[in-house]
UniProtKB/TrEMBL annotation, chain B:
Name of this protein: DUF4142 domain-containing protein
Species annotation: Kribbella antibiotica
Superkingdom classification of source: Bacteria
Regions annotated as coiled coil: none
Pfam families: DUF4142 (PF13628)
């Protein structure tokens, strides 16, 4: 069996001119995908946390994140599907999108990351089909994509004997993303204590989920997306006339949904404050 | 409506992902070697010519382009008499095989590459950098693995080709490569890992940056990471007056 299956995969030492060209293209697109994936993660973390929102505005962060994500997916597509053009049939047919089908764990890491990326991309346009909270949980698998993608890239560079050529650039590009990822999961209070973000930042003052909340909506910012209504329909009501009606002090049992609604607002128009503060 | 939309998306994904599933059918229920003939063929003198036939000529040519100089190098520098003798013979025979191969390519008017692949070039560099016992083992195992994979390409073409020139060339190359494998194994240095190589094979020999460079690189990465966090710090600390201005501006823009 082992011997029987060999000649198909192994045309080995003889690459044709075509293969050399295809390899250059897939290598270049892989490097671009690595770069934009790291930037996408940075912008995504900024969008989620609003750390430098005051610098750039929230909208700029969101659209920057979406643009970078699109570019990552496009270059990753060229990288993956490019292998189909090799005369040496390293990856053929459905092997491009089905992990482990061609027997390489190293390739499978990249393929899983790619499939997840496609799923994230498709669902990012389907806000209205899911509850924001569920949508966000799924969107956060992008962190897994990042880890898989980086592992795939470094392993690939090593396996192709390109480690010495690429390691410095690879480290430099991923350093900001890894630094942000490391502090992303620290609680806001810890970030304030080490002086990374300012104390009076809204995200720094933790909201007591069990205490009464007071809601205010900036009507200048509100663009009537209606996400808040699907999160907490009894608190936020988008009227026929396009105006948003909301209850200023909802009951405590609705707190989780209210927080979720505030978080889902693309315009960051909903502000929540604890009653006693 | 929602369900329709979901179904549509699922249908698109299913269609796209099922394209080419048949390409992975493999060997089951099919004559081995038959797939070589599914590719396009071109009319040529002495019988139909398939891409696999041309690939074999290319593989033999490129094998000669790196194995002959690498063998000559080892024949000069090795301290192991058995390895030296084998390397001498491989060097000599590869020149003869290369001549035959070029003659066959000329008869079929096929252009052959003038240089080995980057991977083969890297093997050659690696062998050139090695000395002593490491040189012997490196050479024997890399050459054995490379011969193993060329041998499989030759064997497939030998049994499937429809072209007379290719068939006789494959017959000649098969005896050469088979003999070379036996010679390399006769040194007693070939390990059971050295069976075949292809471009999916991980590079086992590669240069790694010096520890000092590695340290400097990690320092650079750390500095960049810290700089990013500093930027976040600056970004989250704009004075309240500016914030109000920004917000107003943002509201106007939105």
């Amino acid at each position: 069996m082992g011997l029987m299956s060999l000649p198909e995969a192994v045309v080995a030492a003889g690459f044709t001119g075509n293969d050399n060209g295809v390899r250059s293209v897939v290598a270049f697109s892989a490097r671009l995908a690595y770069l934009t994936m790291c930037l996408t993660l940075c912008w995504g973390i900024f969008t989620a946390t609003g750390w430098i929102r005051r610098f750039t505005g929230h909208q700029a962060l969101r659209s920057g994140h979406a643009m970078l994500a699109t570019f990552t997916l496009a270059t990753a597509t060229v990288h993956g599907f490019g292998f189909m053009f090799l005369d040496e049939q390293l990856v053929v047919g459905a092997q491009v999108v089905v992990p482990f089908l061609n027997g390489y764990v190293r390739h499978a890491l990249g393929i899983i990351a790619f499939d997840l990326m496609v799923a994230i991309m498709i669902t990012s346009g389907m806000h209205r089909l899911f509850r924001y909270r569920n949508w966000l949980r799924f969107h956060q698998t992008a962190y897994v994509v990042f880890v898989l993608g980086v592992a795939h890239a470094w392993w690939g560079a090593w396996a192709n004997g390109n480690f010495e050529l690429l390691w410095l650039a690879g480290l430099t590009i991923s350093a900001p993303a890894i630094a942000l990822l490391a502090v992303r999961f620290l609680p806001a209070r810890a970030l304030v204590r080490i002086g990374l973000i300012e104390g009076d930042n809204a995200s720094a003052a933790p909201i007591d989920k069990a205490a009464p909340l007071s809601i205010s909506v900036d009507n200048q910012r509100c663009h009537r997306y209606g996400f808040c209504q699907s999160e907490a329909p009894d608190v936020f009501q988008l009227g026929e006339d396009g105006r948003l009606a909301y209850r200023q002090s909802p009951e405590v049992s609705r707190n989780l949904d209210v927080i979720s609604a505030a978080r889902s607002c693309p315009m960051r128009a909903i502000e929540i404050v604890g009653k006693d503060s | 409506m929602r369900i329709l939309r979901l179904l549509f998306v699922i249908a698109v994904i299913a269609t796209v992902s099922s394209c080419g599933i048949s390409a992975t059918g493999g060997w089951h229920g099919e004559v081995p070697g038959e797939h070589q003939r599914k590719d396009t063929t071109m009319p040529a003198q002495y019988g139909a010519l398939y891409p696999a036939d041309i690939k074999m000529l290319v593989a033999v040519a490129q094998a000669g382009l790196w194995e002959a100089p690498a063998s000559a190098d080892v024949a000069l520098r090795s301290s192991n008499p058995a390895v030296r003798k084998v390397a001498e013979q491989l060097d000599r025979e590869h020149h003869v095989l290369h001549e035959d191969n070029m003659a066959a390519a000329d008869r079929l008017q096929i252009q052959l590459p003038q240089a080995p692949t980057p991977q083969q070039q890297a093997w050659q560099d690696e062998i050139r950098a090695a000395t002593g016992d490491k040189l012997d083992r490196l050479y024997v195992n890399l050459a054995r693995a490379a011969h193993g994979s060329v041998y499989m390409a030759i064997a497939t073409v030998r049994s499937t080709t429809q072209n007379d020139v290719i068939r006789s060339m494959a017959a000649i190359a098969e005896t050469y490569v088979s003999r070379h494998m036996a010679l390399l194994e006769s040194t007693g240095l070939a390990t059971s890992d050295a069976l075949a190589v292809h471009s999916g094979t991980d590079a086992q020999y590669q240069s790694i940056p010096a520890p000092a460079d590695l340290g400097r690189g990690i320092a650079v990465a750390l500095a960049i990471g810290l700089a990013t966090l500093l930027l976040v710090r600056l970004g989250s600390r704009v004075r309240p007056a500016e914030v109000a201005e920004e917000d107003e501006a943002a509201a106007r823009w939105d």
